[in-house]
Amino acid sequence: MYDFANSSYVTVVISLLYSGFFTEHIVPAGSALRDTYWSIAMVASTILALVLSPLVGAICDFGGHKKRYLAYSTIACAVTTIALWTVDPGEILWAIVLLTLSNCAFMIGEAFCASFLPELATRKNMGVVSGLGWALGYFGGLVSLVIVQFMITADPTGDLAGFVGQNQLAMVAIGIFFAAAAIPTFLLVKERSRPAPGFEGASISTLLRAGVRELGTSYGLVRSYPVLFRFFLAFTVYMAGLEVVMKFIGIYASGELHMTTGDLITMFLILQVSAAAGAIGFGYLEGLLGAKRTVLLTLLWWIAGVSAIYFIDALAALFAMDVISFFMIIAVIAGSGIGSIQSSSRTVVGLLAPADRTAQMFGFWGMFMRISVILAMTFGPVADAFGSRRDALLLVIAFFVVGALMLLRVPLDQGTRDAAAADPDPA
Protein backbone atom coordinates (compact mmCIF):
# COMPACT_ATOMS: atom_id res chain seq x y z
CA MET A 1 0.00 0.00 0.00
CA TYR A 2 2.92 2.35 0.48
CA ASP A 3 4.02 1.64 -3.09
CA PHE A 4 0.42 2.48 -4.04
CA ALA A 5 0.56 5.76 -2.11
CA ASN A 6 3.93 7.18 -3.12
CA SER A 7 3.47 6.39 -6.81
CA SER A 8 0.96 9.24 -6.95
CA TYR A 9 3.76 11.72 -6.25
CA VAL A 10 6.32 10.41 -8.71
CA THR A 11 3.72 9.87 -11.45
CA VAL A 12 1.90 13.21 -11.30
CA VAL A 13 4.54 15.60 -9.92
CA ILE A 14 7.81 14.26 -11.31
CA SER A 15 6.99 12.25 -14.43
CA LEU A 16 3.82 13.59 -15.98
CA LEU A 17 2.02 16.81 -15.13
CA TYR A 18 4.03 19.15 -12.94
CA SER A 19 7.27 18.63 -14.86
CA GLY A 20 5.69 19.85 -18.09
CA PHE A 21 3.73 22.56 -16.26
CA PHE A 22 6.97 23.76 -14.66
CA THR A 23 8.95 24.02 -17.92
CA GLU A 24 6.07 25.49 -19.93
CA HIS A 25 4.37 27.83 -17.43
CA ILE A 26 6.41 28.37 -14.24
CA VAL A 27 9.55 29.13 -16.25
CA PRO A 28 9.02 32.22 -18.46
CA ALA A 29 8.36 31.46 -22.11
CA GLY A 30 11.49 33.21 -23.36
CA SER A 31 13.91 31.27 -21.18
CA ALA A 32 16.50 29.07 -22.87
CA LEU A 33 17.06 27.09 -19.65
CA ARG A 34 13.72 25.35 -19.17
CA ASP A 35 15.10 21.82 -18.90
CA THR A 36 18.11 23.07 -16.95
CA TYR A 37 15.90 24.62 -14.25
CA TRP A 38 14.07 21.31 -13.88
CA SER A 39 17.43 19.53 -13.67
CA ILE A 40 18.51 21.94 -10.91
CA ALA A 41 15.45 21.01 -8.83
CA MET A 42 16.06 17.30 -9.35
CA VAL A 43 19.78 17.53 -8.60
CA ALA A 44 19.27 19.67 -5.47
CA SER A 45 16.72 17.21 -4.05
CA THR A 46 18.97 14.31 -4.96
CA ILE A 47 22.04 15.74 -3.26
CA LEU A 48 20.02 16.36 -0.11
CA ALA A 49 18.68 12.79 -0.17
CA LEU A 50 22.15 11.53 -1.03
CA VAL A 51 23.52 12.99 2.19
CA LEU A 52 20.60 11.97 4.38
CA SER A 53 19.65 8.47 3.14
CA PRO A 54 22.58 6.39 4.47
CA LEU A 55 22.71 8.46 7.66
CA VAL A 56 19.02 8.03 8.38
CA GLY A 57 19.26 4.35 7.46
CA ALA A 58 22.07 3.79 9.95
CA ILE A 59 20.14 5.65 12.66
CA CYS A 60 17.12 3.47 11.92
CA ASP A 61 19.15 0.25 12.25
CA PHE A 62 20.40 1.39 15.67
CA GLY A 63 17.14 2.82 16.98
CA GLY A 64 14.57 0.59 15.25
CA HIS A 65 11.09 2.05 14.65
CA LYS A 66 11.18 2.02 10.84
CA LYS A 67 7.51 2.92 10.64
CA ARG A 68 8.10 6.11 12.62
CA TYR A 69 10.79 7.33 10.21
CA LEU A 70 8.64 6.29 7.24
CA ALA A 71 5.81 8.40 8.70
CA TYR A 72 8.08 11.45 9.05
CA SER A 73 9.16 11.26 5.42
CA THR A 74 5.56 10.72 4.26
CA ILE A 75 4.27 13.80 6.09
CA ALA A 76 7.16 15.92 4.80
CA CYS A 77 6.51 14.90 1.17
CA ALA A 78 2.75 15.39 1.42
CA VAL A 79 2.98 18.84 3.04
CA THR A 80 5.56 20.24 0.60
CA THR A 81 3.59 18.82 -2.36
CA ILE A 82 0.46 20.61 -1.12
CA ALA A 83 2.57 23.78 -0.80
CA LEU A 84 3.18 23.74 -4.58
CA TRP A 85 -0.33 25.23 -4.72
CA THR A 86 1.28 28.57 -3.76
CA VAL A 87 3.68 28.68 -6.74
CA ASP A 88 2.67 31.11 -9.49
CA PRO A 89 4.18 31.47 -12.98
CA GLY A 90 7.60 33.11 -12.81
CA GLU A 91 8.32 31.96 -9.23
CA ILE A 92 11.08 29.59 -10.29
CA LEU A 93 13.11 29.69 -7.09
CA TRP A 94 10.12 28.96 -4.84
CA ALA A 95 9.11 26.05 -7.07
CA ILE A 96 12.65 24.66 -6.96
CA VAL A 97 12.72 24.89 -3.15
CA LEU A 98 9.44 22.99 -2.75
CA LEU A 99 10.37 20.41 -5.39
CA THR A 100 13.71 19.88 -3.65
CA LEU A 101 12.09 19.25 -0.27
CA SER A 102 9.21 17.11 -1.52
CA ASN A 103 11.34 14.96 -3.82
CA CYS A 104 13.97 14.46 -1.13
CA ALA A 105 11.32 13.31 1.34
CA PHE A 106 9.85 10.99 -1.31
CA MET A 107 13.24 9.39 -2.02
CA ILE A 108 14.05 8.83 1.65
CA GLY A 109 10.62 7.30 2.21
CA GLU A 110 11.14 5.05 -0.81
CA ALA A 111 14.34 3.67 0.76
CA PHE A 112 12.59 3.10 4.10
CA CYS A 113 9.74 1.28 2.34
CA ALA A 114 12.23 -0.94 0.50
CA SER A 115 13.99 -1.84 3.76
CA PHE A 116 10.84 -3.65 4.94
CA LEU A 117 11.19 -6.18 2.09
CA PRO A 118 13.53 -8.70 3.84
CA GLU A 119 11.15 -8.74 6.83
CA LEU A 120 8.04 -9.35 4.73
CA ALA A 121 9.33 -11.99 2.31
CA THR A 122 11.58 -15.05 2.21
CA ARG A 123 14.60 -15.32 -0.06
CA LYS A 124 12.62 -17.63 -2.34
CA ASN A 125 9.64 -15.34 -2.93
CA MET A 126 11.28 -11.93 -2.50
CA GLY A 127 11.21 -11.21 -6.25
CA VAL A 128 7.49 -11.99 -6.49
CA VAL A 129 6.60 -9.93 -3.40
CA SER A 130 8.65 -6.97 -4.63
CA GLY A 131 7.06 -7.22 -8.08
CA LEU A 132 3.54 -7.34 -6.64
CA GLY A 133 4.25 -4.29 -4.51
CA TRP A 134 5.64 -2.36 -7.44
CA ALA A 135 2.68 -3.40 -9.59
CA LEU A 136 0.23 -2.15 -6.98
CA GLY A 137 2.19 1.09 -7.02
CA TYR A 138 1.34 1.61 -10.67
CA PHE A 139 -2.34 1.31 -9.84
CA GLY A 140 -1.77 4.08 -7.29
CA GLY A 141 -0.38 6.18 -10.09
CA LEU A 142 -3.39 5.20 -12.20
CA VAL A 143 -5.89 6.34 -9.57
CA SER A 144 -4.07 9.63 -9.01
CA LEU A 145 -4.05 10.29 -12.77
CA VAL A 146 -7.81 9.73 -12.94
CA ILE A 147 -8.24 12.25 -10.12
CA VAL A 148 -6.22 14.98 -11.82
CA GLN A 149 -7.78 14.23 -15.21
CA PHE A 150 -11.10 15.46 -13.83
CA MET A 151 -9.43 18.46 -12.18
CA ILE A 152 -7.42 19.84 -15.13
CA THR A 153 -9.90 20.65 -17.89
CA ALA A 154 -8.98 24.21 -18.97
CA ASP A 155 -7.21 24.93 -22.26
CA PRO A 156 -4.08 27.02 -21.57
CA THR A 157 -4.37 28.75 -24.94
CA GLY A 158 -7.83 30.10 -24.12
CA ASP A 159 -7.94 30.13 -20.32
CA LEU A 160 -4.41 30.34 -18.97
CA ALA A 161 -5.44 31.54 -15.50
CA GLY A 162 -7.91 28.66 -15.14
CA PHE A 163 -5.31 26.15 -16.35
CA VAL A 164 -2.72 27.42 -13.85
CA GLY A 165 -5.23 27.35 -10.99
CA GLN A 166 -6.31 23.80 -11.81
CA ASN A 167 -2.70 22.58 -11.86
CA GLN A 168 -2.11 24.23 -8.48
CA LEU A 169 -5.17 22.55 -6.95
CA ALA A 170 -4.06 19.23 -8.42
CA MET A 171 -0.94 19.42 -6.25
CA VAL A 172 -3.14 19.79 -3.16
CA ALA A 173 -5.10 16.71 -4.22
CA ILE A 174 -1.95 14.64 -4.78
CA GLY A 175 -0.48 15.59 -1.40
CA ILE A 176 -3.69 14.58 0.35
CA PHE A 177 -3.98 11.38 -1.70
CA PHE A 178 -0.39 10.37 -0.81
CA ALA A 179 -0.95 10.84 2.92
CA ALA A 180 -4.37 9.16 2.94
CA ALA A 181 -3.34 6.15 0.82
CA ALA A 182 -0.34 5.51 3.11
CA ILE A 183 -2.53 5.13 6.21
CA PRO A 184 -3.11 1.35 5.78
CA THR A 185 0.65 0.81 5.89
CA PHE A 186 0.91 2.41 9.32
CA LEU A 187 -2.21 0.68 10.65
CA LEU A 188 -1.64 -2.85 9.34
CA VAL A 189 2.11 -3.48 8.91
CA LYS A 190 3.69 -4.88 12.06
CA GLU A 191 6.75 -3.06 13.39
CA ARG A 192 9.43 -5.77 13.38
CA SER A 193 12.57 -3.68 13.65
CA ARG A 194 14.10 -3.49 17.11
CA PRO A 195 16.76 -1.22 18.58
CA ALA A 196 20.30 -2.50 18.50
CA PRO A 197 21.62 -3.78 21.86
CA GLY A 198 22.49 -0.80 24.06
CA PHE A 199 20.32 1.62 22.09
CA GLU A 200 16.96 0.87 23.69
CA GLY A 201 15.43 4.24 24.53
CA ALA A 202 18.41 6.13 23.07
CA SER A 203 17.89 9.85 22.40
CA ILE A 204 17.94 11.24 18.88
CA SER A 205 21.30 12.90 19.56
CA THR A 206 22.79 9.53 20.61
CA LEU A 207 21.37 7.89 17.49
CA LEU A 208 22.68 10.72 15.34
CA ARG A 209 26.21 10.34 16.72
CA ALA A 210 26.03 6.57 16.21
CA GLY A 211 24.81 7.10 12.65
CA VAL A 212 27.65 9.50 11.88
CA ARG A 213 30.19 7.02 13.30
CA GLU A 214 28.64 4.26 11.22
CA LEU A 215 29.00 6.35 8.07
CA GLY A 216 32.67 6.71 8.92
CA THR A 217 33.05 2.94 8.52
CA SER A 218 31.47 2.95 5.05
CA TYR A 219 34.77 2.14 3.36
CA GLY A 220 35.02 -0.97 5.50
CA LEU A 221 31.51 -1.95 4.42
CA VAL A 222 32.58 -1.72 0.79
CA ARG A 223 35.35 -4.20 1.48
CA SER A 224 33.06 -6.44 3.56
CA TYR A 225 30.33 -6.60 0.89
CA PRO A 226 32.18 -6.22 -2.43
CA VAL A 227 29.52 -7.90 -4.60
CA LEU A 228 26.77 -5.65 -3.28
CA PHE A 229 28.76 -2.48 -3.89
CA ARG A 230 29.84 -3.62 -7.36
CA PHE A 231 26.17 -4.11 -8.10
CA PHE A 232 25.46 -0.62 -6.76
CA LEU A 233 27.92 0.85 -9.32
CA ALA A 234 26.27 -0.92 -12.26
CA PHE A 235 22.84 -0.03 -10.85
CA THR A 236 23.83 3.66 -10.73
CA VAL A 237 24.66 3.76 -14.42
CA TYR A 238 21.67 1.90 -15.85
CA MET A 239 19.26 3.61 -13.46
CA ALA A 240 20.49 6.94 -14.84
CA GLY A 241 18.89 5.95 -18.14
CA LEU A 242 15.61 5.07 -16.45
CA GLU A 243 15.65 8.27 -14.37
CA VAL A 244 15.89 10.32 -17.57
CA VAL A 245 12.85 8.52 -18.91
CA MET A 246 10.81 8.99 -15.73
CA LYS A 247 11.72 12.64 -15.15
CA PHE A 248 11.71 13.91 -18.73
CA ILE A 249 9.06 11.84 -20.53
CA GLY A 250 6.34 14.39 -19.80
CA ILE A 251 8.60 17.24 -20.91
CA TYR A 252 9.68 15.32 -24.04
CA ALA A 253 6.14 14.36 -25.03
CA SER A 254 4.70 17.85 -24.54
CA GLY A 255 7.68 19.82 -25.86
CA GLU A 256 8.90 17.64 -28.74
CA LEU A 257 5.73 15.84 -29.83
CA HIS A 258 3.32 18.64 -28.77
CA MET A 259 1.02 16.24 -26.94
CA THR A 260 -1.85 17.90 -25.07
CA THR A 261 -2.55 17.37 -21.37
CA GLY A 262 -5.34 14.98 -22.39
CA ASP A 263 -2.91 13.02 -24.60
CA LEU A 264 -0.40 12.82 -21.76
CA ILE A 265 -2.94 11.58 -19.25
CA THR A 266 -4.29 9.00 -21.69
CA MET A 267 -0.78 7.75 -22.42
CA PHE A 268 0.09 7.48 -18.74
CA LEU A 269 -3.17 5.76 -17.85
CA ILE A 270 -2.32 3.05 -20.39
CA LEU A 271 1.32 3.09 -19.32
CA GLN A 272 0.45 2.48 -15.65
CA VAL A 273 -1.43 -0.71 -16.56
CA SER A 274 1.42 -1.83 -18.82
CA ALA A 275 4.05 -1.15 -16.14
CA ALA A 276 1.99 -2.97 -13.50
CA ALA A 277 1.61 -6.01 -15.73
CA GLY A 278 5.33 -5.90 -16.50
CA ALA A 279 6.27 -5.72 -12.81
CA ILE A 280 4.16 -8.79 -12.02
CA GLY A 281 5.19 -10.72 -15.13
CA PHE A 282 8.89 -10.04 -14.79
CA GLY A 283 8.59 -10.72 -11.05
CA TYR A 284 7.50 -14.30 -11.76
CA LEU A 285 10.03 -14.55 -14.57
CA GLU A 286 12.68 -13.54 -12.06
CA GLY A 287 11.92 -16.75 -10.15
CA LEU A 288 12.88 -18.71 -13.25
CA LEU A 289 15.79 -16.66 -14.62
CA GLY A 290 17.17 -15.03 -11.48
CA ALA A 291 17.38 -11.31 -10.71
CA LYS A 292 20.52 -10.66 -12.78
CA ARG A 293 19.17 -12.15 -16.02
CA THR A 294 15.86 -10.39 -15.49
CA VAL A 295 17.53 -6.99 -15.11
CA LEU A 296 19.68 -7.63 -18.21
CA LEU A 297 16.60 -8.62 -20.20
CA THR A 298 14.77 -5.43 -19.26
CA LEU A 299 17.85 -3.33 -20.08
CA LEU A 300 17.84 -4.79 -23.61
CA TRP A 301 14.11 -4.07 -23.69
CA TRP A 302 14.79 -0.40 -22.90
CA ILE A 303 17.68 -0.05 -25.33
CA ALA A 304 15.31 -1.15 -28.09
CA GLY A 305 12.54 1.15 -26.84
CA VAL A 306 14.62 4.32 -26.62
CA SER A 307 16.22 3.56 -29.99
CA ALA A 308 12.72 3.34 -31.46
CA ILE A 309 11.89 6.79 -30.03
CA TYR A 310 15.10 8.18 -31.53
CA PHE A 311 14.08 6.89 -34.99
CA ILE A 312 10.38 7.54 -34.42
CA ASP A 313 9.77 9.64 -37.55
CA ALA A 314 11.13 6.98 -39.88
CA LEU A 315 9.43 4.13 -38.04
CA ALA A 316 6.06 5.90 -37.93
CA ALA A 317 6.28 6.50 -41.68
CA LEU A 318 7.27 2.87 -42.25
CA PHE A 319 4.14 1.65 -40.45
CA ALA A 320 1.95 4.42 -41.94
CA MET A 321 1.06 5.85 -38.51
CA ASP A 322 1.09 9.33 -37.03
CA VAL A 323 3.98 10.05 -34.67
CA ILE A 324 1.92 10.48 -31.48
CA SER A 325 0.08 7.16 -31.91
CA PHE A 326 3.36 5.37 -32.62
CA PHE A 327 4.98 7.02 -29.60
CA MET A 328 2.17 5.75 -27.38
CA ILE A 329 2.69 2.20 -28.65
CA ILE A 330 6.43 2.41 -27.95
CA ALA A 331 5.79 3.88 -24.48
CA VAL A 332 3.37 1.11 -23.56
CA ILE A 333 5.67 -1.69 -24.75
CA ALA A 334 8.86 -0.22 -23.30
CA GLY A 335 7.07 0.93 -20.16
CA SER A 336 6.32 -2.64 -19.13
CA GLY A 337 10.02 -2.84 -18.25
CA ILE A 338 9.98 0.14 -15.85
CA GLY A 339 8.78 -1.80 -12.84
CA SER A 340 10.93 -4.80 -13.65
CA ILE A 341 14.21 -2.90 -13.48
CA GLN A 342 13.28 -1.24 -10.20
CA SER A 343 11.65 -4.26 -8.59
CA SER A 344 14.41 -6.70 -9.60
CA SER A 345 17.09 -4.27 -8.42
CA ARG A 346 15.31 -3.92 -5.08
CA THR A 347 15.22 -7.73 -4.81
CA VAL A 348 18.99 -7.97 -5.46
CA VAL A 349 19.70 -5.63 -2.55
CA GLY A 350 17.36 -7.64 -0.32
CA LEU A 351 19.16 -10.86 -1.24
CA LEU A 352 22.66 -9.42 -0.74
CA ALA A 353 22.06 -7.27 2.37
CA PRO A 354 23.11 -8.69 5.77
CA ALA A 355 20.11 -9.29 8.04
CA ASP A 356 21.26 -6.85 10.73
CA ARG A 357 21.96 -3.98 8.30
CA THR A 358 18.91 -3.94 6.04
CA ALA A 359 17.92 -0.31 6.65
CA GLN A 360 21.50 0.87 6.18
CA MET A 361 22.02 -1.14 2.98
CA PHE A 362 18.75 0.08 1.55
CA GLY A 363 19.90 3.53 2.60
CA PHE A 364 22.94 2.94 0.38
CA TRP A 365 20.57 1.68 -2.32
CA GLY A 366 18.76 4.98 -2.02
CA MET A 367 22.07 6.85 -2.06
CA PHE A 368 23.26 5.22 -5.27
CA MET A 369 19.84 5.77 -6.82
CA ARG A 370 20.26 9.47 -6.02
CA ILE A 371 23.67 9.46 -7.67
CA SER A 372 21.98 8.00 -10.74
CA VAL A 373 19.54 10.93 -10.72
CA ILE A 374 22.44 13.40 -10.69
CA LEU A 375 24.02 11.51 -13.58
CA ALA A 376 20.67 11.49 -15.40
CA MET A 377 20.18 15.23 -15.00
CA THR A 378 23.00 15.83 -17.47
CA PHE A 379 20.25 15.18 -20.02
CA GLY A 380 18.75 18.63 -19.41
CA PRO A 381 21.89 20.71 -20.07
CA VAL A 382 22.86 18.41 -22.97
CA ALA A 383 19.44 18.87 -24.58
CA ASP A 384 19.57 22.66 -24.04
CA ALA A 385 23.15 22.86 -25.33
CA PHE A 386 22.39 20.97 -28.55
CA GLY A 387 18.91 22.42 -28.90
CA SER A 388 17.48 18.94 -29.37
CA ARG A 389 16.01 16.55 -26.82
CA ARG A 390 15.97 13.90 -29.55
CA ASP A 391 19.76 13.90 -29.98
CA ALA A 392 20.14 13.75 -26.19
CA LEU A 393 18.38 10.35 -26.29
CA LEU A 394 21.71 8.88 -27.38
CA LEU A 395 22.93 9.63 -23.86
CA VAL A 396 20.07 7.53 -22.44
CA ILE A 397 20.96 4.58 -24.68
CA ALA A 398 24.58 4.86 -23.55
CA PHE A 399 23.54 4.67 -19.87
CA PHE A 400 21.64 1.43 -20.49
CA VAL A 401 24.42 -0.15 -22.56
CA VAL A 402 27.25 0.69 -20.14
CA GLY A 403 25.17 -0.35 -17.12
CA ALA A 404 24.38 -3.72 -18.71
CA LEU A 405 28.05 -4.36 -19.48
CA MET A 406 29.00 -3.54 -15.89
CA LEU A 407 26.27 -5.81 -14.51
CA LEU A 408 27.51 -8.72 -16.60
CA ARG A 409 30.75 -8.65 -14.57
CA VAL A 410 29.07 -8.75 -11.13
CA PRO A 411 28.97 -12.29 -9.56
CA LEU A 412 25.49 -11.94 -8.08
CA ASP A 413 24.91 -15.69 -7.70
CA GLN A 414 27.98 -16.08 -5.51
CA GLY A 415 27.10 -12.99 -3.48
CA THR A 416 23.57 -14.29 -2.90
CA ARG A 417 24.87 -17.66 -1.71
CA ASP A 418 27.32 -15.98 0.66
CA ALA A 419 24.61 -13.71 2.10
CA ALA A 420 22.24 -16.66 2.55
CA ALA A 421 24.95 -18.66 4.35
CA ALA A 422 25.55 -15.77 6.78
CA ASP A 423 21.83 -15.18 7.44
CA PRO A 424 20.81 -16.46 10.89
CA ASP A 425 17.28 -17.00 9.55
CA PRO A 426 17.81 -18.37 6.03
CA ALA A 427 14.10 -19.02 5.31
Characterise the protein shown here:
The chain is 81% helix and 0% strand. With 427 residues, the protein is mainly α. It has one domain: MFS general substrate transporter like domains (Growth Hormone, Chain: A, Up-down Bundle).
SSE blueprint and pairings:
Elements (H helix, E strand, L loop, with lengths): L1 H25 L7 H30 L2 H17 L9 H24 L1 H4 L5 H26 L8 H22 L1 H6 L15 H13 L1 H7 L1 H30 L5 H29 L1 H20 L1 H7 L4 H13 L2 H15 L5 H19 L2 H8 L2 H20 L3 H11 L5
Helix pairs in contact: 1-2, 1-4, 1-6, 1-7, 1-11, 2-4, 2-9, 2-17, 2-18, 3-4, 3-7, 4-17, 6-7, 6-12, 6-16, 11-16, 11-17, 11-19, 12-13, 12-15, 12-16, 13-15, 13-16, 13-19, 18-19
What's the CATH superfamily, by name? MFS general substrate transporter like domains
CATH level-1 class? Mainly Alpha
Morphology call: globular
Kindly identify the CATH topology: Growth Hormone, Chain: A
Strand content: under 5%
Summarize the structure.
The protein has helices at 2-26, 34-63, 66-82, 92-115, 117-120, 126-151, 160-181, 183-188, 204-216, 218-224, 226-255, 261-289, 291-310, 312-318, 323-335, 338-352, 358-376, 379-386, 389-408, 412-422. It is mainly α and 427 residues long.
Key features?
427 residues, single chain, 81% helix, Growth Hormone, Chain: A, globular, mainly alpha
